[in-house]
Amino acid sequence: MAEAAVFHVLNKIAASLAGTISDELVKEVSALLAVKNSMKQIKSEFAVMRAFVSQVNAYDSRNETLAAWLEQVKKVAFEVEDIIDEYTYLVGKENVSSFWNSLKQAFRHSKNIAAWHGIADQLKQVETRLERLTKMRHRYGISVRETASNSTALRQRRAFDIPHLSNEDEIVGNDEETKRLIEWLTDGREARAVISISGMGGLGKTTLANSIFKNPTVKRHFNWSVWISVSQSYRVEDLLRRILTHNTGKNEEILNGIDTMDRIELAEKVQIYLREKRYLIVLDDVWSRDPWSSLDHAFVRNNFRSRVIITTRTEDVASLADENRRLRLSTLPKEEAWDLFCKKAFSKLAEKCCPEDLKDWAEKIVDKCQGLPLAVVAIGSLLSYRRQQEQEWKSFYDQLSWQLTNNPELNWVASVLNLSFDNLPSYLKNCFLYCGLFPEDYLIKRKWLIRLWTAEGFIEERGPETTMEEVADGYVKELVHRSMLQVVERNDFGRAKTLQIHDLVREITLTTSRKEKFGIVCNGPGATVLREQARRVSVHKDGLTSQPNGNLRQLRSFILFDKQLPPSSIENASSSFKLLRVLCLRHAKMEQIPDAVFDLFNLHYLDLQYTEVKSIPKSLGKLQNLQTLDLNVTRVEKLPREVATLTKLRHLFVSCYYDFECRIFDCFSAVSVPHDICRLKGLQTLLNIKADKFLMQNIGSLTSLRNLFVMKVRGAYCTELWASLKMMPGLVTLGVVASDKDELLRLDSVHPLPSLHKLYLQGRLDEDEAPTVFASFGRLRDLALGWSGLQNDPLHAFSHMSSLVNLQLYRVYKGPRLSFRAGWFPRLKNLFLADMAQVSVIDIEDGAMESLYQLRLIGLSSLTAAPAGVVYLQSLQEMYLTDMPQEFIGSLETSEFPEYLSIYIF
After folding, report:
1. For domain 424-515, is the CATH number 1.10.150.120?
2. Residue whose C-alpha is closest to residue 504's, from 404, 430, 377
3. Domain named Disease resistance R13L4/SHOC-2-like LRR: which ranges (predicted)?
4. Which of 139, 315, 458, 693 has the fewest other C-beta atoms within 10 Å?
C-alpha cells in the first residue's frame, strides 16, 4: 500500500501546484514561496520513491526490513497529504476574501501568517525525513532485487484450490462446464484451439482445469500434455524451458544448450518439439497478456487437434481464447454451496447432513461465503473439527472476519483472495479499498462511485481531451475485468450500472483498509470509529458510538448509510471535519445544513439526497473546491447566486419529487438557478432547472454539458433552447418539460444531436402526429414522451429507430388503437404505456419488438383484453400491470401466454 499512498500524494501535489494564489498574497506572506518550492522538491523525491516502491510486490514486502522501511514511507506520504490539504484549506480561506471587507481581510491574514509559516516548516521537516529514508535504504542494503527472484511463496499459493478439492466425489457443481470443456477438447476441430477459464479467485478455476487435465477421456485423446503454472512472477524463458524439460527424460538433443538460449531461440525449439504432437498445454494462473506473444509462436499450429487451456482472473487474458471458447465461472447456487459445505463440515457423520440445532448458523455461514467454493470448502473443513454445539458455531460466525485473516487454518483463503488486490496497479488500489466502505451486499451505482473517486483525488489526469469521469470509468472496467467487482446490472450501452463486491472479499478488504488506516466502517455498538486514525469513515448502523475528540484532521471522507442518526450527531461530527473532501449525508434526518459544513474549504463532494433540507445559504460560495452538489429528492427549490461562483463544479443535481411514478404532470419541482450559472464552463450535469428566456439563450455556453434537464419551458423559449443545444457536442441526456400540460413544445427548429442517447419530452406537441424529427436521432436509446396530446397513432414516427431500447409513453395519444408492425423496434427491451384512457386496442404483429423483455401497462382504462399479439413476443419475460380494468385482469385467465412469462398485478 506504500505505492498507492505515494501515488495518491503525487496526484495531490500536482493539483496543488496547479492552483493559483494572488501576487498580493505571495508578497504579504513570504512563506508561500518557500511552501511551493518545498512542494516541488518533495514531488521530485516522491516520483523517484514511487519508481522504487512500484517494483515491490506482496512477496518482496515479506522481507521485514523492507516492510518496516515501506511503513515509514507510507507514514511520510500521509503526513505530506495532511500538509497539502492544510495548504489547500488555507488557500480556500484566502479565496473567500472577496466577501469580506479590507479590515477583516487584514485581521484574517495576521491570523493565518503563522499557519503559512507552520506549513513551510513542516515541509522542510518532510524533506529531511525523505533524505533520511533514502540514506536508510542504502545503509541497510534494502533492495527489491534481493527478494524479487524469490517466488517460492507464490508458487505455493497458486494451487491452493487443488488440495482441498482433490477428491472428485466431493466436487459440487460445474457439471455443465466440465461437459463443455471435454467437448471443446475432444471435438474434431483440427486447428489448434485456445480455451480460457476465467473468474474471481476462489471459484475453482484451477480445480476444474486439473480435473479435466486428469480426465481419462482427455488423457487418451492427447499424446502429450503439460501443466504450466504461470502466476504473477514469471519469466517467459523459464516457462519455455519447463515445457522442453517435461517428459523428455535425458534427451540431449532437446536439452542441449537451453540454459543459454534467449526467448526467440527457446520458442523455436518448443515449436520444433511440438510439431508432430497432438498436445494439451494448461497455462494456469495467467495474470497478463504479456507472455502470450512468445508462447503463441511456440505453440505450433500443426492441425493435429491440439489444445491450450488458460486459467485466469482477468478478462483481458481470457479474451486470448478463440471465439466461443471462453468459459467464465460463477459462484455456486445456494443449494450446491450448501451440499458442498455439508460434505465437508459433516464428513464424519454417516449421512453428511447438518444437525437441526446447527442449521440456522450453518446457513448463515454458507450465505456469507456467497457461493465461493474455496471459502465453502475451507470453512467447512475447519468446522468439521469443531464441537457441534450451537454456541460454538454462533461464536465462529460472529468472528468470521477475524478468523479469515488470523486463523492459520483459514488465512490462506485471505491470501488467495488477496492475490488479486496485490496485483492491482497503484492507481486502482485506493479505488478498490473505497468499494469496501459500502455496506454488505450493497448495490453500488457506477456513476456515484466515479464521482466519489474523483472527489477523493484518486483519478489521474490523462490529457485535456479526456475527462476525469472517463478515466474513472476506465478504472471501473479494469476492476471488473480483473474480477474484483461484479456487475449486477448493465445499462443499455453495455456499461456497468450497478456493481457489487463479494462479501468475503469485502471482509478481507476491510481488514486491509483498517490496517492501512485507509478507512473504517461503523457498524455496531462496539465501534470506536472516531478514536482511530482512519482517513475515511462509513457509518452503517447504530450511529456514532463515540463523539470526536478535537480536530479530526486526518479524515477525508464521511459517508452516512445510517438513516436513524440524529441531527445532533451529524452537527457535532461535521464541526471536526476540517480537511474533509467527501461528505455524504443521504437519508439523514435534517432540515438544514450545519453551518460547520460551509467551513470545509477542501470539500469536493456534498451529497444531501433524500434529506428534508429546504434551503441553501449564501455561505455555499465558500466551498470553492466543490465538484459535485447532489440535492436530489430534497425540498430545495432555489439556489443562491453564490452557486455560480463555484468554478470547479462539475455535477449539480436538484429535484423535489411529488410522484415517483410520474403519473401527474408536476411530479417533481423545477429549481431556480442564477443566470450566472452559465459561466460554469466545467459543468457536465445540470438537472431540473427552471427555464427562462435568458437561460435558454445563454445555456449553450456550457459546452461541457453531458446531462441537462430543463423545466417550466414555454413555447417562446424553444427556438433559443434548440439553438443553444447545438453548441453542446457531448450532450448525452436531455430532458425538456413544458411550463404546464397545455404549453406547446415547438420542435420545428430542432436539429439532430449527434451524441444524444436519452430524450425526455413532457408537454403538448404542435401536431396531430408525432414529429418525424425523432427518426433523425440515430443514436437514441431511451425515448420518453408525456402529455403530448396527439390524435393519431405516434408509433410510426419513431418505429424504425434501430438503437431504441426503452420507450415510455405517458398520456401521449388520445386515439383508440396502437399498432406495432412487423420489423418495428428491433432492439426495444422495455415498453411502458401509461394513462392513455382512449386506447382500447393494441395490435402486435408477428416480428414486432423481437427483443422486448419487459412490458408495463399502467392505467389504460379502456383496454379490456390482453393484446393477442403478446404470444409473438418470444423474448418477453415480465409483464407489469398497474391500475388496469378488471375486465383486462379477468381476460388473462383465458389468454395463452408462454410459461416463462411472469405477470405482476398491482
Report:
1. no
2. 404
3. 554-879
4. 139
Secondary structure of 788-829 in the HEC alphabet?
CCECCCCHHHCCCCCCCCEEEEECCECCCEEEECCCCCCCCC
Residue 327 backbone dihedrals phi, psi, to 5 degrees: -120, 115
Contact indicator for 238, 246 with CB cutoff of 8 Å: no
Which residues does the chain have with pLDDT short of 50? 98-108, 110, 146-166, 169-170, 527
Q: What is the pTM of this model?
A: 0.87
- Across the strands, what pairs with 124? none
Q: Are 684 and 704 in contact (CB under 8 A)?
A: yes
- Whether residue 616 contacts residue 631, with contact meaning beta carbons closer than 8 Å, is answered with yes
Assigned C-alpha cell, 635: 425540498
Tell me the three state secondary structure of residue 536. strand
* Interacting residues of 402 by C-beta distance below 8 A, sequence separation 6+: none
429: number of Cβ within 10 Å = 22
Q: Which long-range contacts (CB under 8 A, 24 or more apart) does 88-92 make?
A: 88/16, 88/19, 88/601, 88/602, 88/625, 89/578, 89/579, 89/601, 89/602, 90/115, 90/116, 90/119, 91/19, 91/21, 91/601, 92/601, 92/602, 92/622, 92/624, 92/625
Distances from the Cα of 553 to the Cα of 48, 86, 430, 534, 795, angstroms: 28, 9, 19, 10, 59
pLDDT at residue 758 in the model? 94
DSSP strand pairing (758-762 vs 764-765): unpaired
> Rg (Cα) of the chain, in Å, rounded?
31
CA atoms within 13 A on the CB side of 554: 19
Please tell me the distance from the alpha carbon of residue 441 to that of residue 190, in angstroms, as a whole number: 46
Could you tell me which residues come within 8 angstroms of residue 422 by beta carbon, excluding any fewer than 6 positions away? 57, 58, 232
Each residue of 692-722: pLDDT tens digit?
Answer: 999 999 999 999 999 999 999 999 999 999 9
Per-residue pLDDT tens digits for 18-60: 655 555 555 555 666 677 777 777 777 777 777 777 766 555 5
**Longest CA span, the chain:** 92
**Opening angle at CA 137, ends 133 and 142, nearest 5:** 145
Ramachandran sector of residue 256 (left: φ over 0; alpha: ψ -120 to 50; beta: rest): beta
Per domain, the residue ranges of the chain are: 2-150, 153-328, 334-415, 424-515, 791-906
Strands 326-328 and 557-560: unpaired
DSSP symbols for 877-897: -EEEEES--HHHHHHTTTS--
Helices (H) and strands (E) in the chain, counts: 30, 29
Provide the pLDDT for residue 543. Answer: 58
| Residue 802, pLDDT score | 81
Grid-cell match 545503509, residue found: 139
Strand 496-500 to 444-445 pairing: antiparallel
**3-state secondary structure at position 641:** helix
- Residue 350 C-alpha cell reads as 454417516
Q: Is 244 helix (H, G, I), strand (E, B) or coil?
A: helix
Kindly indicate whether the domain formed by 153-328 is annotated with CATH number 3.40.50.150.
Answer: no
Q: Specify whether the CB–CB gap between 706 and 450 falls below 8 A.
A: no
Residues facing residue 520 across a β-bridge: 537
**CB contact at 8 A, 570 and 553:** no
In eight-state DSSP terms, residue 228 is: E
Closest-CA residue to 458 (of 10, 57, 2, 145):
10
Neighbours of 758 (CB within 10 A): 17
14 three-state secondary structure: helix
Asked whether the beta carbons of 880 and 854 are under 8 A apart, the reply is yes
Per-residue three-class SS string for 286-305: ECCCCCHHHHHHHCCCCCCC
